[in-house]
Design a protein that fits this description.
By secondary structure, this protein is mostly beta strands. It has one helix and ten strands, in the order αββββββββββ.
Length: 143
Amino acid sequence: MKWYQEYHHDMNGLLVLDEKGFDRVAIGDRIPDPNIGKRIGPSTGITINDEQGFERSGYGLLKVDDLYRVVLGLDSAKGEEGLTLALFDEGGVGLIQRDGDRKLYLGSAPAGSPLTKLTEPFHGLLLRKGAEVTHQLNVAVKR
C-alpha cells in the first residue's frame, strides 16, 4: 500500500460518503486521485464513484504542463475510461471510445498531440488496436 500513500487524498469542496465510508461523490477544487492511480494533473470538478469507491464518471478541468484540459469521462467497470469527451488548450477536441485494446478517436488535434499520437495534424476518424493504427480518415492531410 506504499504506492497509495503517494496519491492526493484531501480536497476542498464537498465529499459525500456512503454508510460504509466509501467516497461516492466529490465536488471541489482539487478533487482526490482515483483509487486506481494518480491523475496526470490537479483537477477541479466532479467525480462519481461506485459502492466500492472506484471512479465511474467525472467532469473536470485539469492543469497539465501549465495548460488546461476540459474532460468528461465515463469509466467502465474494468477501470478504464470507456467514453471521453476532451478539449485541450494546446489544441485538440474530440470523442474517445475505448474497449480493451481497441480505441476510436473522432475529432481534431495538432501534430504530436497526446490525443492521436500522430506526427501530423489530424481531423477525422482514427481507429487503433493497441498501438497500431488500423484505420484512419484524416482530412487535415492530403494524401
